[in-house]
Amino acid sequence: MHPFHFAKSKPNHPAYIMGNSGETVTFKQLEDRSNQIAHLFREHDINPGDTIAIFAENSARYFEIAWAAQRSGLYYVCISSRLTAPEVQYIVEDSGSKVLIASASLSSVAVEVNAITELEAYWSIDGEIATYQKLEELAAKKPTTPISDEMMGTDMLYSSGTTGRPKGIRPALELGMPIDEPSVLVQLAQLLAKAQGDDMVYLSPAPLYHAAPLRWCMSFTRMGATLVIMEKFDPEKYLQLVEKYKVTHTQLVPTMFVKMLKLPEEVRTKYDVSSLRAAIHAAAPCPIPVKEQMIEWWGPVIEEYYAGSEGNGMTWINSEQWLHHKGSVGLPVMGELHICDEEGNELPVGEAGTIYYSGTTPPNYHNDPEKTKGALNPKHADWSTLGDVGRVDKDGFLYLTDRKAFMIISGGVNIYPQEAENVLITHPKVADVAVIGVPNDEFGEEVKAVVQPAEGIPTDEALKEELLEFCRSKLAKIKCPKTVDFDPALPRHPTGKLYKRLVRDRYWGKSDSTIV
Q: What is the pLDDT of residue 479?
Protein backbone atom coordinates (compact mmCIF):
# COMPACT_ATOMS: atom_id res chain seq x y z
CA MET A 1 0.00 0.00 0.00
CA HIS A 2 1.17 3.49 -0.85
CA PRO A 3 -0.51 6.82 -1.68
CA PHE A 4 0.53 6.47 -5.33
CA HIS A 5 -2.06 3.69 -5.65
CA PHE A 6 -4.82 6.07 -4.51
CA ALA A 7 -3.54 8.82 -6.82
CA LYS A 8 -4.64 6.45 -9.58
CA SER A 9 -7.82 4.98 -8.08
CA LYS A 10 -9.26 8.14 -6.44
CA PRO A 11 -7.10 11.09 -7.57
CA ASN A 12 -9.48 13.84 -6.40
CA HIS A 13 -10.10 12.32 -2.96
CA PRO A 14 -8.59 14.39 -0.10
CA ALA A 15 -5.36 12.89 1.21
CA TYR A 16 -5.37 15.41 4.04
CA ILE A 17 -7.12 18.55 5.25
CA MET A 18 -5.64 21.18 7.57
CA GLY A 19 -7.91 21.61 10.59
CA ASN A 20 -7.82 25.40 10.92
CA SER A 21 -7.26 26.68 7.39
CA GLY A 22 -9.20 23.93 5.63
CA GLU A 23 -6.49 23.64 2.97
CA THR A 24 -6.98 20.33 1.19
CA VAL A 25 -4.40 18.26 -0.69
CA THR A 26 -5.74 15.44 -2.88
CA PHE A 27 -3.98 12.13 -3.49
CA LYS A 28 -3.12 13.30 -7.02
CA GLN A 29 -1.63 16.52 -5.71
CA LEU A 30 0.33 14.64 -3.05
CA GLU A 31 1.66 12.28 -5.72
CA ASP A 32 2.68 15.05 -8.10
CA ARG A 33 4.29 17.26 -5.47
CA SER A 34 6.19 14.46 -3.75
CA ASN A 35 7.52 13.36 -7.15
CA GLN A 36 8.65 16.90 -7.91
CA ILE A 37 10.51 17.16 -4.61
CA ALA A 38 12.08 13.74 -5.23
CA HIS A 39 13.45 15.06 -8.54
CA LEU A 40 14.75 18.11 -6.67
CA PHE A 41 16.60 15.84 -4.22
CA ARG A 42 18.33 14.01 -7.04
CA GLU A 43 19.24 17.27 -8.79
CA HIS A 44 21.06 18.31 -5.60
CA ASP A 45 22.91 15.00 -5.40
CA ILE A 46 20.78 13.73 -2.50
CA ASN A 47 20.83 10.02 -3.15
CA PRO A 48 19.63 6.76 -1.52
CA GLY A 49 20.94 6.44 2.03
CA ASP A 50 21.42 10.21 2.44
CA THR A 51 19.63 12.29 5.06
CA ILE A 52 17.44 15.39 4.94
CA ALA A 53 16.02 17.40 7.86
CA ILE A 54 12.58 19.01 8.27
CA PHE A 55 12.26 21.85 10.79
CA ALA A 56 8.63 22.88 10.56
CA GLU A 57 5.35 23.34 12.32
CA ASN A 58 2.33 21.36 11.15
CA SER A 59 1.86 22.36 7.52
CA ALA A 60 0.24 21.11 4.34
CA ARG A 61 3.76 20.81 2.92
CA TYR A 62 4.96 18.41 5.62
CA PHE A 63 3.72 15.21 4.01
CA GLU A 64 4.75 16.28 0.51
CA ILE A 65 8.34 16.39 1.82
CA ALA A 66 8.08 13.22 3.92
CA TRP A 67 6.61 11.15 1.07
CA ALA A 68 9.22 12.59 -1.32
CA ALA A 69 11.97 11.36 1.00
CA GLN A 70 10.19 8.04 1.51
CA ARG A 71 10.12 7.37 -2.24
CA SER A 72 13.72 8.56 -2.72
CA GLY A 73 15.40 6.07 -0.38
CA LEU A 74 16.31 8.79 2.13
CA TYR A 75 16.37 9.17 5.88
CA TYR A 76 14.14 12.10 6.88
CA VAL A 77 14.81 13.71 10.24
CA CYS A 78 11.84 15.54 11.74
CA ILE A 79 13.04 18.24 14.16
CA SER A 80 10.97 19.79 16.93
CA SER A 81 9.79 23.29 16.09
CA ARG A 82 10.47 24.28 19.71
CA LEU A 83 14.25 23.97 19.52
CA THR A 84 16.85 26.72 19.63
CA ALA A 85 19.41 27.20 16.87
CA PRO A 86 22.24 25.34 18.68
CA GLU A 87 19.88 22.40 19.31
CA VAL A 88 18.83 22.28 15.65
CA GLN A 89 22.50 22.57 14.68
CA TYR A 90 23.35 19.54 16.81
CA ILE A 91 20.66 17.39 15.16
CA VAL A 92 21.35 18.34 11.54
CA GLU A 93 25.09 17.83 12.02
CA ASP A 94 24.78 14.66 14.09
CA SER A 95 22.39 13.12 11.55
CA GLY A 96 24.57 14.11 8.59
CA SER A 97 21.69 15.93 6.90
CA LYS A 98 22.46 17.39 3.48
CA VAL A 99 19.57 19.84 3.39
CA LEU A 100 17.46 21.67 5.97
CA ILE A 101 13.85 22.45 5.06
CA ALA A 102 12.31 25.02 7.43
CA SER A 103 8.92 26.71 7.69
CA ALA A 104 8.82 30.50 7.43
CA SER A 105 7.17 30.76 10.84
CA LEU A 106 10.47 29.56 12.32
CA SER A 107 12.59 31.99 10.31
CA SER A 108 14.46 33.58 13.22
CA VAL A 109 15.88 30.24 14.34
CA ALA A 110 16.30 29.00 10.76
CA VAL A 111 18.45 31.99 9.78
CA GLU A 112 20.66 31.45 12.81
CA VAL A 113 21.03 27.75 11.96
CA ASN A 114 22.11 28.70 8.45
CA ALA A 115 24.80 30.95 9.92
CA ILE A 116 26.31 28.24 12.13
CA THR A 117 26.06 25.21 9.81
CA GLU A 118 27.39 24.30 6.37
CA LEU A 119 24.80 22.15 4.66
CA GLU A 120 24.49 21.70 0.92
CA ALA A 121 21.12 23.45 0.70
CA TYR A 122 18.59 25.41 2.78
CA TRP A 123 14.96 25.51 1.60
CA SER A 124 11.93 27.30 3.05
CA ILE A 125 8.24 26.39 2.94
CA ASP A 126 5.09 28.48 3.56
CA GLY A 127 6.90 31.75 2.93
CA GLU A 128 10.30 33.35 2.69
CA ILE A 129 13.34 32.95 4.94
CA ALA A 130 16.37 35.11 4.32
CA THR A 131 19.27 33.04 2.87
CA TYR A 132 16.89 30.14 2.06
CA GLN A 133 15.48 29.16 -1.33
CA LYS A 134 11.72 28.63 -1.56
CA LEU A 135 11.04 24.91 -1.91
CA GLU A 136 7.67 25.37 -3.60
CA GLU A 137 9.23 27.45 -6.39
CA LEU A 138 12.15 25.06 -6.88
CA ALA A 139 9.94 21.96 -6.98
CA ALA A 140 7.29 23.48 -9.26
CA LYS A 141 9.75 23.32 -12.18
CA LYS A 142 10.34 19.57 -11.81
CA PRO A 143 8.51 16.64 -13.47
CA THR A 144 5.50 15.13 -11.71
CA THR A 145 6.51 11.64 -12.84
CA PRO A 146 8.43 9.28 -10.49
CA ILE A 147 12.23 9.42 -10.37
CA SER A 148 13.97 6.55 -12.16
CA ASP A 149 15.52 5.04 -9.02
CA GLU A 150 12.56 5.02 -6.62
CA MET A 151 13.13 3.03 -3.44
CA MET A 152 11.84 3.07 0.10
CA GLY A 153 13.27 5.50 2.64
CA THR A 154 12.45 5.85 6.33
CA ASP A 155 12.32 8.32 9.19
CA MET A 156 15.23 8.96 11.54
CA LEU A 157 13.84 10.46 14.74
CA TYR A 158 15.56 11.81 17.81
CA SER A 159 14.78 10.84 21.38
CA SER A 160 12.89 13.34 23.50
CA GLY A 161 15.87 14.47 25.52
CA THR A 162 14.13 14.07 28.91
CA THR A 163 17.19 12.27 30.29
CA GLY A 164 20.00 14.00 28.39
CA ARG A 165 20.97 15.14 24.93
CA PRO A 166 18.69 13.65 22.25
CA LYS A 167 19.97 10.64 20.31
CA GLY A 168 19.05 9.70 16.78
CA ILE A 169 17.32 6.39 16.17
CA ARG A 170 18.65 5.26 12.80
CA PRO A 171 17.03 2.03 11.61
CA ALA A 172 18.68 -0.13 9.00
CA LEU A 173 17.71 0.95 5.49
CA GLU A 174 17.78 -1.75 2.85
CA LEU A 175 18.37 0.07 -0.41
CA GLY A 176 16.28 -0.99 -3.38
CA MET A 177 13.13 -1.93 -1.45
CA PRO A 178 9.86 -1.08 -3.24
CA ILE A 179 8.18 2.05 -1.89
CA ASP A 180 4.93 0.15 -1.28
CA GLU A 181 6.57 -2.58 0.77
CA PRO A 182 4.11 -3.81 3.46
CA SER A 183 4.18 -1.83 6.71
CA VAL A 184 4.00 -3.48 10.14
CA LEU A 185 2.11 -0.51 11.58
CA VAL A 186 -0.48 -0.74 8.81
CA GLN A 187 -0.95 -4.43 9.51
CA LEU A 188 -1.38 -3.76 13.23
CA ALA A 189 -3.87 -0.95 12.57
CA GLN A 190 -5.95 -3.21 10.33
CA LEU A 191 -5.86 -6.06 12.81
CA LEU A 192 -6.28 -4.15 16.08
CA ALA A 193 -7.72 -0.68 15.35
CA LYS A 194 -10.55 -1.49 12.93
CA ALA A 195 -8.67 0.29 10.13
CA GLN A 196 -10.79 -0.98 7.25
CA GLY A 197 -13.00 0.59 4.59
CA ASP A 198 -13.00 3.41 2.07
CA ASP A 199 -14.58 5.93 4.43
CA MET A 200 -11.77 6.25 6.99
CA VAL A 201 -11.00 9.72 8.32
CA TYR A 202 -8.03 10.05 10.67
CA LEU A 203 -7.68 13.05 13.00
CA SER A 204 -4.18 13.97 14.20
CA PRO A 205 -3.99 16.59 16.98
CA ALA A 206 -0.23 16.51 17.69
CA PRO A 207 3.00 17.85 16.14
CA LEU A 208 4.05 15.87 13.08
CA TYR A 209 7.73 15.87 14.05
CA HIS A 210 6.92 13.37 16.81
CA ALA A 211 7.11 9.64 16.08
CA ALA A 212 3.53 8.59 16.81
CA PRO A 213 1.69 11.34 14.89
CA LEU A 214 4.07 11.08 11.92
CA ARG A 215 3.96 7.30 11.64
CA TRP A 216 0.24 6.86 12.29
CA CYS A 217 -0.60 9.58 9.76
CA MET A 218 1.58 8.05 7.07
CA SER A 219 0.21 4.60 7.85
CA PHE A 220 -3.39 5.74 7.43
CA THR A 221 -2.43 7.52 4.19
CA ARG A 222 -1.05 4.17 2.99
CA MET A 223 -4.55 2.77 3.56
CA GLY A 224 -6.30 5.54 1.62
CA ALA A 225 -7.75 7.40 4.61
CA THR A 226 -8.27 11.16 4.64
CA LEU A 227 -6.20 12.85 7.33
CA VAL A 228 -7.38 15.89 9.27
CA ILE A 229 -4.35 17.69 10.72
CA MET A 230 -4.70 20.08 13.64
CA GLU A 231 -2.14 22.85 13.58
CA LYS A 232 -2.31 22.90 17.39
CA PHE A 233 -4.39 20.91 19.87
CA ASP A 234 -7.39 22.61 21.42
CA PRO A 235 -9.88 20.36 23.27
CA GLU A 236 -13.09 21.92 21.95
CA LYS A 237 -11.73 22.35 18.41
CA TYR A 238 -10.80 18.67 18.46
CA LEU A 239 -14.40 17.69 19.23
CA GLN A 240 -15.68 20.07 16.54
CA LEU A 241 -13.46 18.38 13.95
CA VAL A 242 -14.61 14.89 14.96
CA GLU A 243 -18.21 15.94 14.36
CA LYS A 244 -17.53 17.99 11.20
CA TYR A 245 -15.54 15.34 9.34
CA LYS A 246 -17.14 12.24 10.91
CA VAL A 247 -13.73 11.11 12.11
CA THR A 248 -13.35 7.34 12.37
CA HIS A 249 -9.82 7.04 13.78
CA THR A 250 -7.52 9.20 15.88
CA GLN A 251 -4.44 9.04 18.09
CA LEU A 252 -4.09 11.02 21.31
CA VAL A 253 -2.19 11.19 24.59
CA PRO A 254 -3.69 11.07 28.11
CA THR A 255 -3.23 14.81 28.76
CA MET A 256 -5.58 15.47 25.83
CA PHE A 257 -8.18 13.25 27.47
CA VAL A 258 -7.76 15.22 30.70
CA LYS A 259 -8.22 18.57 28.94
CA MET A 260 -11.37 17.37 27.18
CA LEU A 261 -12.82 15.93 30.36
CA LYS A 262 -12.26 19.24 32.15
CA LEU A 263 -14.34 21.14 29.59
CA PRO A 264 -17.75 22.20 30.91
CA GLU A 265 -20.22 19.35 30.52
CA GLU A 266 -22.45 21.37 28.20
CA VAL A 267 -19.45 21.87 25.87
CA ARG A 268 -18.34 18.23 25.95
CA THR A 269 -21.74 16.76 25.27
CA LYS A 270 -22.85 19.02 22.42
CA TYR A 271 -20.56 17.38 19.86
CA ASP A 272 -21.34 14.10 18.11
CA VAL A 273 -18.41 11.66 18.45
CA SER A 274 -20.37 8.55 17.47
CA SER A 275 -18.40 8.18 14.21
CA LEU A 276 -15.26 7.11 16.14
CA ARG A 277 -14.25 3.48 15.67
CA ALA A 278 -10.84 3.65 17.35
CA ALA A 279 -9.24 6.31 19.52
CA ILE A 280 -5.67 5.16 20.01
CA HIS A 281 -3.60 6.53 22.89
CA ALA A 282 -0.06 6.10 24.15
CA ALA A 283 3.04 8.15 25.20
CA ALA A 284 2.29 8.03 28.95
CA PRO A 285 0.31 5.90 31.40
CA CYS A 286 -3.33 6.96 31.54
CA PRO A 287 -4.81 7.43 35.03
CA ILE A 288 -7.49 4.80 35.61
CA PRO A 289 -10.31 7.28 36.44
CA VAL A 290 -9.53 9.26 33.28
CA LYS A 291 -9.74 6.21 31.05
CA GLU A 292 -12.90 5.01 32.78
CA GLN A 293 -14.55 8.36 32.01
CA MET A 294 -13.39 8.29 28.39
CA ILE A 295 -14.81 4.81 27.79
CA GLU A 296 -18.08 5.86 29.43
CA TRP A 297 -18.21 8.97 27.20
CA TRP A 298 -16.99 7.61 23.84
CA GLY A 299 -17.84 3.95 24.27
CA PRO A 300 -15.50 0.93 23.88
CA VAL A 301 -13.43 2.58 21.13
CA ILE A 302 -10.43 3.48 23.30
CA GLU A 303 -7.36 1.52 22.20
CA GLU A 304 -3.99 1.76 23.97
CA TYR A 305 -0.48 0.65 23.12
CA TYR A 306 2.95 0.83 24.66
CA ALA A 307 5.96 1.27 22.39
CA GLY A 308 8.79 3.68 21.62
CA SER A 309 10.31 5.46 18.66
CA GLU A 310 12.92 2.68 18.67
CA GLY A 311 10.38 0.17 17.36
CA ASN A 312 11.80 -2.71 19.40
CA GLY A 313 8.47 -3.98 20.73
CA MET A 314 4.80 -3.18 21.28
CA THR A 315 1.84 -4.09 23.47
CA TRP A 316 -1.84 -3.41 22.76
CA ILE A 317 -5.08 -3.41 24.74
CA ASN A 318 -8.67 -2.65 23.72
CA SER A 319 -11.43 -1.25 25.91
CA GLU A 320 -12.98 -4.60 26.77
CA GLN A 321 -9.63 -6.06 27.82
CA TRP A 322 -8.76 -2.96 29.80
CA LEU A 323 -11.98 -3.04 31.80
CA HIS A 324 -10.90 -6.49 33.03
CA HIS A 325 -7.25 -5.42 33.51
CA LYS A 326 -7.53 -1.79 34.59
CA GLY A 327 -4.23 0.06 34.37
CA SER A 328 -2.67 -2.38 31.92
CA VAL A 329 -1.08 -1.34 28.60
CA GLY A 330 -1.82 -4.71 27.08
CA LEU A 331 -0.44 -7.93 25.67
CA PRO A 332 2.61 -8.07 23.38
CA VAL A 333 1.79 -7.79 19.68
CA MET A 334 5.41 -7.27 18.58
CA GLY A 335 8.18 -9.11 20.40
CA GLU A 336 8.15 -11.20 23.56
CA LEU A 337 8.04 -9.53 26.99
CA HIS A 338 10.54 -10.10 29.80
CA ILE A 339 10.62 -8.41 33.21
CA CYS A 340 14.15 -8.43 34.63
CA ASP A 341 16.11 -7.36 37.70
CA GLU A 342 19.24 -5.19 37.68
CA GLU A 343 21.43 -8.21 36.85
CA GLY A 344 19.30 -9.15 33.84
CA ASN A 345 17.56 -12.13 35.48
CA GLU A 346 13.92 -12.71 34.59
CA LEU A 347 11.54 -12.03 37.48
CA PRO A 348 8.43 -13.99 38.52
CA VAL A 349 4.92 -12.92 37.52
CA GLY A 350 3.77 -9.89 39.49
CA GLU A 351 7.20 -8.50 40.37
CA ALA A 352 8.27 -5.14 38.95
CA GLY A 353 11.48 -4.77 36.96
CA THR A 354 12.94 -3.44 33.75
CA ILE A 355 10.85 -4.20 30.65
CA TYR A 356 12.73 -6.00 27.85
CA TYR A 357 11.64 -7.28 24.45
CA SER A 358 13.11 -10.23 22.57
CA GLY A 359 12.52 -11.42 19.03
CA THR A 360 12.83 -7.90 17.60
CA THR A 361 15.62 -5.67 16.33
CA PRO A 362 17.35 -3.82 19.21
CA PRO A 363 17.56 -0.04 18.89
CA ASN A 364 20.51 1.58 17.14
CA TYR A 365 21.33 4.99 18.61
CA HIS A 366 23.24 7.01 16.04
CA ASN A 367 26.80 7.90 17.07
CA ASP A 368 26.24 6.53 20.58
CA PRO A 369 27.48 2.94 20.95
CA GLU A 370 27.31 3.19 24.75
CA LYS A 371 23.60 4.04 24.73
CA THR A 372 23.01 1.27 22.18
CA LYS A 373 24.86 -1.20 24.41
CA GLY A 374 23.05 0.10 27.51
CA ALA A 375 19.69 -0.83 25.99
CA LEU A 376 20.65 -4.51 25.98
CA ASN A 377 20.06 -7.04 28.74
CA PRO A 378 23.31 -7.94 30.57
CA LYS A 379 22.65 -11.67 30.08
CA HIS A 380 20.74 -11.72 26.80
CA ALA A 381 22.32 -9.59 24.08
CA ASP A 382 19.23 -9.77 21.87
CA TRP A 383 16.83 -8.47 24.56
CA SER A 384 16.40 -4.69 24.53
CA THR A 385 14.71 -2.08 26.73
CA LEU A 386 13.48 1.51 26.58
CA GLY A 387 14.35 1.95 30.25
CA ASP A 388 10.81 1.58 31.57
CA VAL A 389 9.78 -0.38 34.65
CA GLY A 390 6.73 -2.62 34.82
CA ARG A 391 5.19 -5.95 35.76
CA VAL A 392 2.99 -8.58 34.12
CA ASP A 393 -0.02 -10.31 35.66
CA LYS A 394 -0.91 -14.00 35.47
CA ASP A 395 -2.66 -13.43 32.12
CA GLY A 396 0.41 -11.82 30.55
CA PHE A 397 -0.86 -8.22 30.60
CA LEU A 398 1.80 -5.55 31.10
CA TYR A 399 1.47 -2.74 33.67
CA LEU A 400 3.84 0.22 33.57
CA THR A 401 5.26 1.42 36.85
CA ASP A 402 7.38 4.37 35.69
CA ARG A 403 10.63 5.20 33.99
CA LYS A 404 13.61 3.92 35.93
CA ALA A 405 15.19 7.38 35.70
CA PHE A 406 12.28 8.94 37.66
CA MET A 407 12.17 6.41 40.49
CA ILE A 408 12.50 8.04 43.92
CA ILE A 409 14.57 6.29 46.59
CA SER A 410 13.59 7.59 50.02
CA GLY A 411 15.13 5.93 53.05
CA GLY A 412 15.94 2.88 50.91
CA VAL A 413 12.35 2.51 49.67
CA ASN A 414 11.64 2.64 45.93
CA ILE A 415 8.75 5.00 45.09
CA TYR A 416 7.34 5.39 41.58
CA PRO A 417 5.91 8.92 41.21
CA GLN A 418 3.47 7.96 38.46
CA GLU A 419 1.08 6.58 41.08
CA ALA A 420 0.75 9.90 42.90
CA GLU A 421 0.55 11.80 39.60
CA ASN A 422 -2.33 9.59 38.45
CA VAL A 423 -4.23 10.43 41.63
CA LEU A 424 -3.56 14.17 41.75
CA ILE A 425 -4.42 14.85 38.09
CA THR A 426 -7.99 13.75 38.81
CA HIS A 427 -8.48 16.52 41.40
CA PRO A 428 -10.76 19.22 39.91
CA LYS A 429 -8.42 22.04 40.99
CA VAL A 430 -5.36 20.51 39.25
CA ALA A 431 -4.56 21.27 35.59
CA ASP A 432 -1.24 19.39 35.54
CA VAL A 433 1.18 17.80 37.99
CA ALA A 434 4.70 16.43 38.27
CA VAL A 435 5.75 14.31 41.23
CA ILE A 436 9.50 14.22 41.79
CA GLY A 437 12.17 13.36 44.30
CA VAL A 438 13.92 16.31 45.97
CA PRO A 439 16.97 16.33 48.30
CA ASN A 440 16.45 15.29 51.92
CA ASP A 441 19.37 15.19 54.36
CA GLU A 442 18.00 12.27 56.36
CA PHE A 443 16.35 10.07 53.68
CA GLY A 444 18.32 11.06 50.58
CA GLU A 445 15.14 12.03 48.73
CA GLU A 446 11.60 12.97 49.64
CA VAL A 447 8.49 13.12 47.47
CA LYS A 448 7.27 16.50 46.22
CA ALA A 449 4.35 17.43 43.97
CA VAL A 450 4.71 20.40 41.64
CA VAL A 451 1.17 21.39 40.67
CA GLN A 452 -0.15 23.58 37.88
CA PRO A 453 -3.49 24.75 39.29
CA ALA A 454 -6.64 24.95 37.21
CA GLU A 455 -7.46 28.38 35.85
CA GLY A 456 -8.72 30.78 38.52
CA ILE A 457 -7.76 28.58 41.48
CA PRO A 458 -5.85 30.45 44.25
CA THR A 459 -2.53 28.87 45.27
CA ASP A 460 -2.49 28.95 49.04
CA GLU A 461 -1.67 26.74 52.00
CA ALA A 462 -5.25 25.48 52.15
CA LEU A 463 -4.98 24.09 48.61
CA LYS A 464 -1.67 22.41 49.44
CA GLU A 465 -3.20 20.62 52.39
CA GLU A 466 -6.32 19.72 50.40
CA LEU A 467 -4.19 18.05 47.70
CA LEU A 468 -2.03 16.18 50.22
CA GLU A 469 -5.12 14.83 51.99
CA PHE A 470 -6.69 13.88 48.67
CA CYS A 471 -3.63 11.83 47.75
CA ARG A 472 -3.38 10.18 51.18
CA SER A 473 -7.02 9.12 50.93
CA LYS A 474 -6.20 7.03 47.86
CA LEU A 475 -2.58 5.90 48.28
CA ALA A 476 -0.30 4.67 51.04
CA LYS A 477 1.24 7.66 52.83
CA ILE A 478 4.78 6.71 51.80
CA LYS A 479 3.82 7.06 48.11
CA CYS A 480 2.31 10.51 48.58
CA PRO A 481 4.08 13.88 48.42
CA LYS A 482 5.25 15.40 51.68
CA THR A 483 5.10 18.90 50.19
CA VAL A 484 3.45 20.75 47.31
CA ASP A 485 4.79 23.60 45.19
CA PHE A 486 2.90 25.49 42.50
CA ASP A 487 3.94 26.28 38.94
CA PRO A 488 1.77 28.34 36.55
CA ALA A 489 2.82 26.22 33.54
CA LEU A 490 4.64 22.91 33.76
CA PRO A 491 7.05 22.18 30.87
CA ARG A 492 5.02 19.76 28.80
CA HIS A 493 5.64 18.95 25.14
CA PRO A 494 2.70 19.43 22.71
CA THR A 495 2.67 15.64 22.26
CA GLY A 496 1.82 15.32 25.94
CA LYS A 497 5.19 14.27 27.31
CA LEU A 498 6.09 15.94 30.61
CA TYR A 499 9.67 17.20 30.85
CA LYS A 500 10.03 15.97 34.39
CA ARG A 501 13.79 16.28 34.31
CA LEU A 502 13.48 20.05 33.88
CA VAL A 503 11.20 20.23 36.92
CA ARG A 504 13.46 17.96 38.96
CA ASP A 505 16.62 19.86 38.04
CA ARG A 506 15.31 23.04 39.69
CA TYR A 507 15.65 21.31 43.03
CA TRP A 508 18.97 19.62 42.34
CA GLY A 509 20.85 22.67 41.05
CA LYS A 510 21.13 21.54 37.43
CA SER A 511 20.32 23.49 34.25
CA ASP A 512 21.63 21.44 31.32
CA SER A 513 18.42 19.74 30.22
CA THR A 514 17.41 19.71 26.58
CA ILE A 515 13.82 19.96 25.37
CA VAL A 516 12.83 18.37 22.07
A: 86
